[in-house]
Amino acid sequence: MVTEKLNNKSNVGWFWKFFVKEHFIFLFCALIFMSLEGSMLGLLSYSIKFLFDDVLVSQETKNIFLVGAIVFSIFSVRAIAGFAHRLITINVAQKIIKKLQDEMVIHLVNLDLSFHKINPPGKLMDRVRADSKALSDSVGEAFMTVGRDGFSLISLILVVFFIDWKWSIIAFLGTPILVLPIVFLQKWVRVKAGENRDFETKANVRLDEIFHGVSDIKLNQAENTERERFFSILNLTHKIRFKLESGMAGIPALIDIIAAIGFLAVMVFGAIDIVSGTKTIGEFMSFFTAMALIFEPLRRLSNVSGNLQVAMASLERVKNIFETKPSITSVRSSIPKQFINRDIGLEFKRVCFSYDKIKAVQNITFTVAPGTTAAFVGISGSGKTTLFNLITRIIDPDEGSIFINGTDIKKIDLFQLRSFISVVRQDGMIFDETILENIRFGKQDASEAAIKHAAKMAYVDEFADNMKKGLNTKVGPRGSALSGGQRQRIAIARAFLRDSPLLLLDEPTSALDNQSEKLIQKSLAVLSEKCTTLVVAHRLSTIEASDNIFVLDNGNIVESGSHESLLRKGQFYSRLFKSELKENGIKSD
Q1: Inter-residue contact 287 to 42 (CB < 8 Å)
Q2: What is the pLDDT of residue 271?
Q3: Largest CA distance in the chain
Q4: How many CB atoms lie within 10 A of CB 259?
């Protein structure tokens, strides 16, 4: 992978090595075709000499067909070569985009949660799609322009110097004047290109938030507010984009001014030489045609610098993504022998973890025996979900260690570790796929029969059977076509399908009604019989049968024991339990 090979080379060198170099042979073939297409312009301009001197001036009609055949051949070769190099270049550019976006996505997925918390999805989507495409498109366009127009420019310059070197010097006399303004404009374009991409990213982020929060926008009557916020971003984007385009348009405008001066000088000196008889009309027309053709590729080549500056801005942003390294790394190791069976035991030893200096768990130590069920309760923010993230290594502890069957989880291959764990969260992600594919997400190689069994165990079939396409029904973006309870059942079905020896349940029935909760509790009880289970729950009534209950407060375990023993103590857990009974209108004994 690209992320494993980053070094301190320049951005261009890095891009060439990891994304372009493998296509060198195809690009070289494209360059050959570009040289053919470009050199035909020089040949065309020189053939004008024969048209005027050998046909029009001499009035030798027998040469018409020869000159016509030459011109026809020139345009035919140019057409075939142009078609060939465009196909090759476009194909290579698309392959580069595909690899670049693929590498970026897998790299971003592997980065830590801390990275994703400060980088909204809209911003990352813009990096993957817009920046990579802008980079590849700009480089591809620059390659075609430099290759084709570069050879055109060389061939045309050779023609004009071959006809008359004095005329050529006069025509190009003003060229050095362009150097400083073009250098200034290139720097301007690069700066504005970076600013433009930043504002386009902000616009994408805002759109992502608007469309994902459209229900809340409607309910809070915030349509106009959101429109004004987005419109203010568009206004700033427009201003920056206008400055960027102005800078890019300024370079060819300068060239046109110099071209006008050059043409005027050549016409004056050329007319003098023709009148004096030192040059023929054919030579002048050939020279004049070549000069007229020179400035068009020169204009396009001048635009290349602007496009490359845009590409460099995108390249820098793309490379910065790849240079961001995950702090949670995996070791390559075989499956420990003690993991072969389903008896999974868990131990925390003096574990501490903080979010931005805010302590989430403090000096946590506990043991969960294989095949038992442990529950974690406490008020919101007490650290319950953090414990699950630590077990799955979504985050790593600042201090202390976590052991599974006596092995530190940091010494277990990350992929292997997570293969032993099933997680049901209260906000499990549902994708814009069918119900069946959403369940298969828990185990990609599962058979359809196994998926249907998991759906039955999680009571997904109860609502799926009432749909026209059953399990093959599309659920919409983020499961928008389903209720909260239905989405939760699909998440639970994934756990049944994975059938892992360690089961983590983070508020698994939070989105279910009482009837559905009772059904799911029965299924979870069956699932828990075959594995070690850890449960986070606000409804204390759902964890009464747990073998051990750990009570958390401010990141500390303040109590532990069975449901009955904790009630007898009459402390924190007892107060929580009585408070819940009161909320449900039940009198406690």
Answers
A1: no
A2: 65
A3: 123
A4: 21
